[in-house]
Amino acid sequence: MANTLKLEIVTPEAKTYSEDVEMVTLPGTEGEMGIYPMHVPLMTQIVAGELCVLKDGETHFFAVGDGFAEITGGRVAILTDMAINSDNIDEARAEEARKRAEARLREKLTDEEMAAVTASLAHSLTQLEVKRRRRK
Questions:
Q1: pLDDT tens digits, residue range 63-96?
Q2: Domain identity same for 69 and 130
Q3: pTM for this one?
Q4: CATH number for the domain including 68?
Q5: Which residues lie below 8 Å from residue 32, measured CB to CB, with a gap of 6+?
Q6: Interatomic CA distance for residues 131 and 72, integer angstroms
Q7: If 0-12 CB within 10 Å is exposed, 13-18 middle and 19+ buried, where does residue 103 land?
Q8: Residue 105, class by beta-carbon neighbours within 10 Å (0-12 exposed, 13-18 middle, 19+ buried)?
Q9: Other CB atoms closer than 10 Å to residue 19's CB: what's the count?
């Protein structure tokens, strides 16, 4: 058990991932952070970007939104507003969402609307970046 840690990713909609993994790379506010089993306990903020997971010798990629990660020696718990496996990202749909969000930003918006549109734009840009980076 000392060679793996439990990774749990939770969004407002559901627990999207719960597996034993060898390593996690988080997109943090100060850059990427690699987490191995027996990591020192830590609570940190994550930013929209690419989360990398090493499981059974294979690397899996996720587009994640802003959130928090709680790290203990045997567990990484991530609470985020978005988490999508790169294999499940629909590039055309993300591109359309980006265009809609950019168009909305040119309108007169309330502060609440501006926050929602900005978050939507960040989500679509993150998905596009992760998907395009992983395209073979």
A1: 999 999 999 989 999 999 999 999 998 999 999 9
A2: no
A3: 0.85
A4: 2.60.15.10
A5: 25, 26
A6: 30
A7: exposed
A8: middle
A9: 14
